[in-house]
Amino acid sequence: MPNRDLAPWTRSRGIAPFGRDPFTSFRQQMERLFDDFLAPIEAPAFAVGQDGGVWPSVDVEETDKAYKVTAELPGLELKDVEVALRDNALIISGEKRREHKEEDGGRTYAERSYGRFMRSIPLDTEVDADKVQAKFKNGILAVELPKNPAARDKTRRIEVKS
């Protein structure tokens, strides 16, 4: 007796009791696993979070006098980006809109991607909101947040006794 007669989900007998061939699903999952494993180890400029949202890659540098935040926002323009300071946290938000269209002979290929992003960066020391400066050039947002001198003076070392 051929193997196809033993499997109740073969094409000759109609649709599988579970809706599809389980080996097809297993093969697809294994292919996806190997594709993810062998993919280049390059951090995307926009990462996808657990909630499915996207956010930009950010570098934060702290000195004695200021915080320096650099965010990569490739393909965005100044009008697409909003920067705010709320509750001693820097908030970078905006919307990424990208459309790509190629025409070759009689075929057309179009790809669109849209998504809002928001990144909140909490700051340990209070900043001087009046002196915050932000610059945007070639898809790179650079924000300098000077620390409030009065807040810096409030920090002091406490001696620990044994």
TrEMBL record:
Q: Where is the SHSP domain?
A: 49-162
Task: Supply the InterPro entries for this chain.
Answer: A-crystallin/Hsp20_dom (IPR002068), HSP20-like_chaperone (IPR008978), Small_HSP (IPR031107)
Q: Which family does it belong to?
A: Belongs to the small heat shock protein (HSP20) family.
| Name of the protein this chain belongs to | Hsp20/alpha crystallin family protein
